[in-house]
Amino acid sequence: MTDAELAAKLAEDAGTLLLELRESSNLTGKSLGDAGDKAANEMLVAALREQRPDDGLLSEESKDTDSRLDKDRVWIIDPVDGTREYSEGRDDWAVHVALAIDGKAVVGAVALPSFDLTLRSDLPIASPVRSHKPRMVVSRSRPAKEAVAIAEILDADLIPMGSAGAKAMAIVRGEADIYLHSGGQYEWDNCAPAAVAEAHGLHCSRIDGRPLIYNQRDTYLPDLLICHSEDANRILALVKGL
Q: How much is the pTM?
């Protein structure tokens, strides 16, 4: 099984587990979210330890260690991206499984379990369609001030949405055009989405244009821009001018 096939299978399996837990459990709210995080993380970590024992591993739900820093290949996972949305019974949450090689997001799978859909870096779907009027995905509760400002300049429609993976995949699926985030993220929030988005020909970077670099000692990776490549330079320039 290739790395990409493994990433997709694990993301799909975790998504199935999470749906079954949500449908069968009496848990609600934070208790459901915590249970989902724990169950999916245990499944993903066990599978990766078995299937790729020599690789490093970074998960939102596991205690981090320095052992991954000496590895060229590191799996970066978010068992439930959008735990709040998952626990509320919403659709806009995801499972992230990615492989970073030498700090670059090379392989990725983002499962959208509520839609029975997994977007993969090795199997790009049709090229994302660019809308005549820009559409920008933003946080449901805390839209980034830079995103709101750029949306006003571009006269873009704002689309509130939950998880980072759901937002990024909205660009890949042609449902939106811009995902600009500056409110704080970690490597597991955007590694898999970036790998998938880049495989679909989209631009992915920090909001100052720097590349997204993974497997760092400090896993805080607070901002990113995912958009159509032809729009990237203009958006980056607008952000710089704010």
A: 0.96
